[in-house]
Amino acid sequence: MLDISVQNFETDLIAASMQQPVLLDIWAPWCGPCKALGPLLEKLEESYAGRFTLAKLNSDEQPEIAGQLSQMFGVRSIPFCVLFKGGQPVDGFVGALPEAQVSSFLDKHVPSAEELASTQDVAQAESLLAGGDIDTALEKLGEAVAINPGNDAARGEYLHALLTAGRIAQARRAYDPVASNVVPNARVAACGHWLAACEQAAVGRSPEQLEAALNVDKRDFDARFELAQHRFATHRFTQAMDELLEILMRDKAWRDGLARKTYVAVLEVMGRPVAKTSDSALPRSALELAGNQPRVATDPVADSYRRRLSMVVF
Question: Pick from 202, 241, 237, 236: which is nearest to 224 by CA?
């Protein structure tokens, strides 16, 4: 349990909620219902075993924060609880609710025990990958997917790690269960295109044969796309996008947008922007609080290729 003040609002509430949901209990020493709700929330924090963090804010000592949140949600009484997730206040409730109702509220927003275990495996795998321990990392990611098959984030990272390591057959087995999803996770979908490129490169024409075909006919889009897939499969990402741009500049809709979809997949595979928590001072208004999004560090190479795609497609 954390006590929130102006001094630690950014780090222990906003930034912390980027990693895990934080339930903020706004209370006061003179409030009878607050005294009933407080111990219940502490009991639930313990029973949920790390699935959310409980934070408390004394409204008498921190009237500015309490006032902003009360105004935002249109609330005039306490106890008042606000759930923060992803750096934002997303939901809340008022009053000393029974345990079953508080649990129902929490279950709408916090990960299940299986989801938490899966997420922890992914976090451990990322550290292992950074340290070069690929086999153990893949084992952890495989466990994460097995524990929670619906965790698309874990499956996407598993596929990415498998394809990076060149384990194409394993990647195919991991991808097939979600290959027909109508609205796939972006990372999973990108790895599906990467997997297709790897499989095509293994049985298709050599780069030399493809380049010879293009020397004869620069508008041989099938050959150019196959060459892009070969570049994609061998981790030459910018070269793959260069070939795809050649297609898009001449035919944006080629093969039902396949060149564009593959280009977007290459960008996704290259890596995502990394969120950084804001180092600004406490927001001065409810509007600022609601809009206090984390800043993002981007890859200048990827940004350059995003701009090129926009110039061609739009």
Answer: 241
104 with 155, same domain?
Answer: no
Q: Are the C-beta atoms of residues 187 and 161 closer than 8 Å to each other?
A: no
pTM: predicted TM-score of the whole model, two decimal places: 0.65
31 annotated active-site:
yes
By three-state DSSP, how is residue 90 classified? strand
Whole-angstrom Cα Rg for the chain: 25
Q: CB neighbours (10 Å) of residue 293?
A: 11
- Note the pLDDT of residue 131: 86
243: its two tokens: 């070939």
Q: Where are any strands of DSSP class E within the chain?
A: 2-3, 22-27, 53-58, 80-85, 88-94, 274-276, 295-297
- 191 labelled catalytic: no
Is a pLDDT exceeding 60 seen at residue 292?
A: no
Can you tell me the distance from the alpha carbon of 184 to that of 182, in angstroms, rounded to the nearest whole number?
6
Q: By C-alpha distance, which of 86, 151, 156 is closest to 118? A: 151
Domain span at residue 151 reads: 113-188
Q: What is the pLDDT of residue 125?
A: 81
Catalytic residue among 34, 81, 191, 198: 34
Same domain, 83 and 135: no
Active-site residue, selected from the candidate residues 31, 81, 191, 198:
31
Query: Mean pLDDT, to the nearest integer, of 84-109?
Result: 94
